[in-house]
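Reopening this ticket.

The earlier resolution said the output was attached, but the attachment link was broken on my side. Pasting everything inline this time so it's all in one place.
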Amino acid sequence: MIAESGQPVDAEALGRGGLDWLVGSAQDTGTGLAWKDTPADEEPDPILYGGAAGIVLALLEGRNHFGDDRYGDAASRGARTLAATVDAWDNCSLYLGLTGMAVALHAVHELLGDEAAGAAADRAVERVRSRFDGTRWDDRWFDLLAGNAGIALGALAVGDTELAVLAVTPYLRTAERTAGGVQWEVLSGAPARFHHVSHGTLGIASALAAVGRAAGRPDLTELAVAGASDVVARNDAGPEGFLAPHSDPQHFPDRIERYSYGWCHGPTGDAQAFRLLGSVAQDSAWRTLADRCWHTVTHSGLPQRLRPGFWDNNGRCCGTAGVLALACDRHVEGRDGLDFANTLVADLASRATEDADGVRWSNVEHRETPSELDPRPGWGMGNAGIVRELLRFARLTTGRDGAYAVDWPDHPAADPGRGGGPGPGER
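Inline output:
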């Protein structure tokens, strides 16, 4: 693998440099370690999306990959700050609240034997359970990132199937029938219906499918299929590809493009939902749809920045690292992903800043001046999400195990036994 500079890319070294920057950028709170999502933030951020919970999981990945206790110690110290935050945090969601914090604390307990982290994870889960109003937790969002679906997936990750069922049951009575299947109002009072993983129908379908399998509830699995079928009916890419719009009617059309390609609102994330449905429903048609998503992603032009706003993010949520995760999944499952993964890693290498502090990445906001943003530490838009995928890629390309140290709640694990022949555009 060769970067644009003509020099070979060492993904493992980039990952270690990213971990070192994460450790070096932490604040010592006196209780443990904490991180601000951006330098302008007044307080450190504990959440999974952009704060300590996601960073702790990346540090655990580093500790597992390198066998380096420095990263395990930093994860433990980050967990101590999370534990001190649990009793005062009100948001219950996976990516913005207590459920994501519980996932990180539970992982520290499982991998490092940290009993205090385990006790704090239990407190966080019970706090989530106590704040359920019978239908939802958030008065605005009813989705994966901030609402019920994410809470369900986080509950499964910490072994609480009862809470997971509680979280998805309201979707049975709130589903809206459509010509293609079902959808949901995921943003209270908004006319738009969102279709993809982070905020839309496929995120809810993923939770329904996962919980249906875990709890032996075929009614949940059937509703998952109906939700995904609605999104499939919206495909605008023809029979070879898959590209559904962001939302209908389009949410903020003056600010949000109708089509995206990343994990959050595009075929990268859609493919992950279809991979899960294929496994749960044992139906190869879903795997074919995942192949069609991959065809669209690899023919879109990314990771080139074709125009301002097209591909300005290196991170796991909206950017290159999220596509790298899918590419590596495909490689593990005996498909074609490694060649494109090489392209993605070379692009990440070309955009990295490396110095005595370590390695980090900055994203671009083309509507601001200067357009290059400050580097961020967290999972969604920053180093933690990038590092996790680079280390996995390094293992796969050197014949080591491609499993993560900790599976992400909404990322279906790659199964080497799934295999499969070439998909569209791969022959």
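Reporter confirms the inline version is readable. The mean pLDDT is 95. The longest strand covers residues 353-355.
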